[in-house]
Amino acid sequence: MARELFDTNCIKLEVIGDDYTLQPDPFQLLEATKTLIADGFEVLPYSNSDLIVVQRLVDAGCRVVMPWAAPIGSGQGPTDYRALETLRSRLPDTTLIIDAGIGRPSHAAEVMEMGFDGVLLNSAVALAKDPVRMARAFALAIEAGRLGFQGGLMDEREVGSPSTPTLGTPFWHRRESHPEENLE
Q: Which among 104, 111, 106, 97 is positioned nearest to 146, based on CA atoms?
């Protein structure tokens, strides 16, 4: 009906496997995805953040996959950074849109900084005290996160590193030897 009413082949697919966490059923999701793609639909599946599940959906013909950051409506934000980073790095040509679990604008900025292509929101805006202001906050956070990703975030370091150049610094302010050499 959606294809006929709205003149589109795009369809968002959710196959919930657990009523408590609202986690998708990856097996039924893949089966339903294949059936819909064979029927001419462009399927946008809601998935968990498991690389193998998402890869199978891509292999089945999905150009867009919508993994969760956390359970639907939980507002927890990204709970498995490593899995999300792995998805982005291993599927660079797949459009990945975070579909669930985002609760704060900072969560949206984080996933956009990881290189995700978008964020689908509902509860975080719908349940806010001021939904209009919250929607604006998310729009700004998503833009900032995307710009940060495109700008090339600096690599994290285990130790501090001076950000001020020492060229032109008077010699008495420079450390010419290693601190451990000064121990007696």
A: 111
